[in-house]
Amino acid sequence: MDRAGDEVDTGAVGHPASRRDLTELSEAARDLDRRIEQHLGRLRRERAQRARDDIPDQRLRPSG
Fold first, then answer.
1. Its domain of life (predicted)?
2. Are 9 and 17 in contact (CB under 8 A)?
């Protein structure tokens, strides 16, 4: 608090500016986690699809 009794941002000291800021950060972190999981799921599905479409002998045949 400042001399007038108003709350001030003390982020430089290591204290959060407000509870709302922490809530927004938590929501942003959850959103990021969800987006990462969706992306990883898509990559896993694409890898599985490529594995099904792959012809095993194709890699062993000479190209010329």
1. Bacteria
2. yes
